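Researcher: Next sequence.
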Amino acid sequence: MRTVSSNVHGAPVSAAILVGGAATRMGGVPKALLDVCGQSILDWLHEVLSPRFTDILLVAKEPEPYRGICDQDQTKVLRLALDELPGRSSLTGIQTALANAQTQHVFLTACDTPFLRPALLDALLAHLRPEDDVVLPRKPDGYFEPLCALYSRRCLPHITAQLARGDHKIIRFFDQVRVNPLPVATLLQADQDLLSFKNANTPEELRSLRQTAARLRQSQEKKQ
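Model: Next structure:
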C-alpha cells in the first residue's frame, strides 16, 4: 500500500484532483492540461501536492487524456479514478474520490487552479481533526470554497442520497455532517491575495492566469 500524507494528528490523508469537467467554454480542451507559463495546470498542482501526498487521485469522466500520465509518467505518482455516476458535476467527482480513497480523509481540489498555495494546504491539514467531516476555507465574503477542501468518507452516504435526488449542489449536505471552517484570518495569513482560488473557466481567465504566472515567476527570480 502506498504511503499518504498525515495531518497534525498523525492521521493519513490522500489527495484528489477533479478533472471531470466538460470545459465547454474552453473549447472542450481538458483544463488540467492547459499550458500556464510553460507547464500544464496539472504540473502546477502536482508540484504542490506531491511533497505532501504520495497517494494522489485523478478523478475523470473521460480517462483517455490522462491514461499516459498515470500509467507511463513515473515522475508523477497518480491513480486514475473513473467517475461513472450519472451526470457531470463536482459532487459526483467528490463521491468518486471518497469511494476510491485509501484513507478516511481526502483533500479535494479543482483541476484549473494552478496557484494553490502550499501554506493554505498546510493550514487546512493542520486544522483537520479526526472527527471532522469537512474542512474548508471561509472566504472574506462569507462563502465557503468547497473545491479546496478536506472531506471524510463519512460524507459518502449523504452525498449518495443527495445525488439520488438529482441535487448536485456541494454544500447542500453540509448541515448533516461536522463542518470545521478554516477561519478567514487563517486563510488570509496563508494566501493574502486568494490566488489559490484563481481558475480558468473562460479564455479570458486563462489569459489572466498566464499573466499571474509570469508575475510570480519574475518575483521568484528576483528573490534568487
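Model: Residues 5-223 form a domain with the Spore Coat Polysaccharide Biosynthesis Protein SpsA; Chain A fold (CATH 3.90.550.10). The longest helix spans residues 203-223.
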